[in-house]
Amino acid sequence: MTGAAGKTGRAVVRALVARGERVRALVFRAEQAVALNPLGPSDVVVADMSNAAALAAAMRGTATVYFICPNMHPDEHELGRLAVEAASSAGVDRFVYHSVMLPRVREMPHHWQKHLVEEELVRSGLDHVILQPCAYMQNVQAGIRRIVDDGQYTVPYSTRTRLSVVDLDDVAEAAAIVLSSPGHTAKTYELCGPQALSQEDVACALTAELGRPVRATTVVRAEWASLARTAGLGDYAIESLLRMFDYYEREGFCGDPTELEALLGRPATPFSEVVRKIFRDRGLAAAEHRRSSHA
Ligand SMILES: NC(=O)c1ccc[n+]([C@@H]2O[C@H](COP(=O)([O-])OP(=O)(O)OC[C@H]3O[C@@H](n4cnc5c(N)ncnc54)[C@H](OP(=O)(O)O)[C@@H]3O)[C@@H](O)[C@H]2O)c1
Q1: Whose CA is nearest to atom 47 of ligand 1?
Q2: Is the same domain home to 184 and 236?
Q3: CB of 29 closer than 6 A to ligand 1?
């Protein structure tokens, strides 16, 4: 598995280990190997996935490759092409690609790059599966400080915009199921959450779980871009995300949970449950807050 030390990778390593699978995790830096070890991968390799020879060496002896590209990487098409080539030369049985919902939308450059990787994979003749998750519910954590401290949930698009956000742990479990069971050859699965939530719905769920008011507000995109630049985000990521926000606001980003639920054999996790867990992990559950404000 590439990108194993990232947000997605860690969740999938956990899900695979929970199913008793052996995982060779590819990480970028030696310190990530140390941090990942407690999750229980059988093997951790430190390598740069833009190095074709290192990639092929890491893949040799594995049955299946799970390719997770670093988030918002300007060269995702090239990294994907290298990974497909390396998998072919290493003789792996199967290649599973962590793509995104609606990769064919050309106006979102990071989606379009995933579409091009999907094409490389289909053309390669490798036995393959493609997973297309919607945006993760856990992304709400990026703004958690303002949510908790100021009761403000800010998004760089209209608060009426609807997204079928999905629980990252559901995505990870679905990935682990696909990676460890037969019968998915040439399938593409869209992985969406159970509801198409507006940002006002998101704020309502945050209010209910936090036990105090949270309001959804729109931040001007130029202001968002300036903050993102100060935080160290690169030009490609900023430009791609701005185009994604335009798309979200105009079209929404909604899908159907059927394929995810069929893979999981259970209903997809609702947003309120994920938020409850996020607050509980931070010692901020609504019931506890109510108790402390009565004390
Ligand atoms: N977030 C969402 O809502 C969402 C939804 C659908 C799909 N996705 C897709 O999910 C994928 C993973 O996203 P994520 O947020 O989990 O990624 P992430 O946290 O950025 O993790 C990527 C990992 O890859 C490592 N990496 C970077 N460059 C590398 C290189 N040259 N060679 C080897 N490893 C390298 C990073 O290490 P460093 O930390 O050292 O850079 C990091 O550990 C992305 O392709 C994204 O588009 C995300």
Answers
A1: 71
A2: no
A3: yes
Question: Do residue 87 and residue 152 come from a single domain?
Answer: no
Q: Is residue 1 part of a domain?
A: no
Name the phi and psi angles at 27, rounded to 5: -120, 165
Question: Are the CB atoms for 76 and 113 separated by under 8 Å?
Answer: yes
Is the C-beta atom of 226 inside 6 A of ligand 1? no
pTM attached to this predicted model: 0.96
Instruction: Examine the domain organization and report whether 124 and 85 are in the same domain.
Output: yes
In short, whether 108's Cβ falls inside 6 Å of ligand 1 is no
Say yes or no: CB of residue 7 within 6 Å of ligand 1. Answer: yes
For residue 160, the domain's CATH number is 3.90.25.10
For ligand 1, is residue 31 a contact (CB within 6 Å)?
no
Q: Which domain holds residue 200?
A: 137-166+194-255+270-295
Question: How do residues 46-104 score in pLDDT, each as one tens digit?
Answer: 999 999 999 999 999 999 999 999 999 999 999 999 999 999 999 999 999 999 999 99
Q: How many angstroms is it from 292 CA to the middle of ligand 1?
A: 38
CA-CA distances (angstroms) from residue 4 to 84, 91, 250?
Answer: 17, 21, 33
Instruction: Please tell me whether residue 289 adopts helix, strand or coil conformation.
Output: helix
Tally of domains in the chain: 2
